[in-house]
Amino acid sequence: MASPRPVSTVPGGQPQALTAVDAEHDIAATQSGFYESKDGGKTFTKRLAVASGDEH
């Protein structure tokens, strides 16, 4: 099992969920969208925006 590693700040704020696909590929979900890192969590790119409202 891999040891936890520190990651950079996700641009969308505090992650609500974080998945490590493999050693270099991470996906983070925040209240503003889904972000992907392909460099071990050093940088994240927004992949999908999430609209929030009173319905959530």
Based on secondary structure, the structural category is mainly beta
- Low-pLDDT windows of residues: none
Number of helices: 0
> How many strands appear in the DSSP assignment?
4
**How would you characterize the largest beta sheet?**
4 strands, antiparallel
Shape: elongated
Portion of residues within helices = under 10%
First-last Cα distance? 35 Å
- What portion of residues belong to β-strands? 25-35%
Describe the structure.
- The termini are far apart.
- Strand 3 and strand 4 (45-49) form a beta hairpin.
- It contains no helices and four strands.
- It is mainly β and 56 residues long.
- It has strands at 17-20, 26-30, 33-37, 45-49.
- The model has no long low-confidence stretch (mean pLDDT 85).
- It has a four-stranded antiparallel sheet, with no helix packed on it.
What distinguishing features does this structure have?
elongated; 4-stranded antiparallel β-sheet
Give the gist of this structure.
The protein is an all-beta fold.
Secondary-structure map:
Elements: E1 17-20, E2 26-30, E3 33-37, E4 45-49
